[in-house]
Amino acid sequence: MSLPSDEVARRLIDSELGITCRWWQRNNPLPGNMVASKLTAQNLNLHVNHFESIDPATGLPFCEETPFISLSCGTVERDTVAKTNFVHTARHTALWFGTQFGKVPVAYLYVCWVVLAPRSAVAVQGVAEEIRDLNTYRRYSPYQTEGEVAAKILLPANQISQCERWEWDREAKTIRRAWVYRNSGFVAPEALSNVREMI
């Protein structure tokens, strides 16, 4: 398996397309007429809880055909016995996955934003699902503490502020940000704000 490179990381931003789901990557051009049949609660459950299970319809692991894009937003885990909360930050979780749990020396992280649905809206492509929110997604998931938010089909390039390369030193057990590539076409989320200044 070849590791990503700075050039590949830059290209994702410079292409002005953004981050596409695995289903689109395997089926380019994207079969747009099939989007509605892919954005289902059952497929979201497969994406979150059974990512590598075999899809009987295709014979492939679901991860190869998922219409969702996993994003890390961090979460809080409550320990009722110790009467305390543990914060799992988005960056820490993303780096853990990006380094394949400490197995690879380099991870690329994309800093971005998405619009979150106020409640479950799996069929609505333009909003992301806040899987970590136990008020909306109440079924038990062993992965709740990963703080996942699931975007759908495409995360546009103009919602990515930058790409960061992180280098993991396994012997020293340290990780450091070694490189940043900023997106000149980034549009800040404040563009959507409906807050008005008043006197």
Number of strands: 9
**What does the radius of gyration come to?**
18 Å
- Report the structural category: alpha+beta
Largest sheet: 3 strands, antiparallel
Strand order of the largest sheet: 5-8-9
As for the CATH topology, it is Heat-Labile Enterotoxin, Chain A
Percent of residues in helices comes to 10-25%
Tally of separate domains:
1
The overall pLDDT average reads: 89
Strand content: 25-35%
Query: How many H/I helical runs?
Result: 5
**End-to-end gap:** 59 Å
Task: Categorize the overall geometry.
Answer: globular
What is the string of SSEs from the N terminus onward? HEHHHEEEHEEEEE
For the record, the CATH architecture stands as Alpha-Beta Complex
**Top-tier CATH class:** Alpha Beta
The poorly predicted ranges are: none
Supply the key terms.
199 residues, alpha+beta, Heat-Labile Enterotoxin, Chain A, three-stranded antiparallel β-sheet, two-stranded antiparallel ribbon, 26% strand, globular
Question: What does this protein structure show overall?
Answer:
The structure is a single chain. It is built from 5 helices and 9 strands. It is α+β, with helices and mostly antiparallel strands and 199 residues long. The protein has one domain: Alpha-Beta Complex (Heat-Labile Enterotoxin, Chain A). The strands form 4 sheets. The chain has a 3-stranded antiparallel beta sheet with strand order 5-8-9, sandwiched between helices. Strands 1-7 form a two-stranded antiparallel sheet. A hairpin with a 4-residue loop joins β8 and β9. The model has no long low-confidence stretch (mean pLDDT 89).
